[in-house]
Amino acid sequence: MLVSPERLRLANDHAAVAVRPAGLADLAATIGTLGLSRPRPVVAVVGGAGLMDDDDLTDLFAHLIATAISEMGAVAVDGGTDAGVMRMLGRSRESESRAFPLVGVAALGTVIFPGNPGGAEAVPLEPHHSHFVLVPGADFGDEAPYLARTATLLAGGAPSATILVNGGEIAFEDCLLSVAEHRPVLVLGGTGRTADRIAAAAADPASCRDERAVDLALSPWVRVTDVHNRRAAVTNLLKLLRSGPEI
């Protein structure tokens, strides 16, 4: 039996609509209760929650990623916490007064909101998201399969793409899960850590000892672009969102 969506009251009196699927098996039915029209383009944003230079990347989100999402009439999906790429995307959406839906997918044990204290390392939900999918799990990374599938379900057959910005260990799984969903992944090289490891593997796979990075770099579903070439990065993202599932 499905439970009706709930309304969360977040920081600074922001509100969001949330659903709580019991597991992957009922995710599709639960997503259907969010009230988001389908099919429509979807951008999944994955990557760093920490160890990032906010000053260097804030402009990237405000004038590249958020603009592209808005121009395409797309839905954005991310990990929903008030940190790293999720904080930047939420704040970019708010500061630029863009109305695109922003869906955070987070494991209940990893987040804090009224009525949910989370676990010992839990962090607040990012307050500028419009929707949340709150899934079972106690550890960061438990949300990864749900995030990948949520993006697919929200697209409903429309084009979708995943953007990797920076990222730690979980980012590898996020990218692999996107590839498994047959969703193209745009790696923004120059943003640090996992994104740079995959970019380095793409440039010279023979000398790279990171097998995960090489596997992703050589995948036909993965495209690497240099974040410092903003025009090329925007062009690549819009191309993926217009071209459908085949690269």
Report on the architecture of this protein:
- The chain is an alpha/beta fold and 247 residues long.
- It is 37% helix and 20% strand.
- The strands form 2 sheets. Strands 1-2-8-5-4-3-9-10-11 form a 9-stranded mixed β-sheet, with helices on both faces. Strands 6-7 form a two-stranded parallel sheet.
Keywords:
247 residues, alpha/beta, Rossmann fold, two-stranded parallel sheet, 37% helix, 20% strand
Secondary structure tally: strands: 11
- Mean pLDDT comes to 90
Tally of alpha and pi helices: 8
Quickly give the structural class. alpha/beta
The third-level CATH topology of the largest domain is Rossmann fold
Low-confidence stretches: none
Q: What oligomeric state do these chains adopt?
A: single chain
Number of domains: 2
- What level of helicity do the residues show? 25-40%
Task: Report the sheet-strand fraction.
Answer: 15-25%
Computed over alpha carbons, the radius of gyration is 17 Å
CATH class of the largest domain: Alpha Beta
Return the CATH architecture of the largest domain.
Answer: 3-Layer(aba) Sandwich
The main sheet comes to: 9 strands, mixed
**Strands of the biggest beta sheet: in what spatial order?**
1-2-8-5-4-3-9-10-11
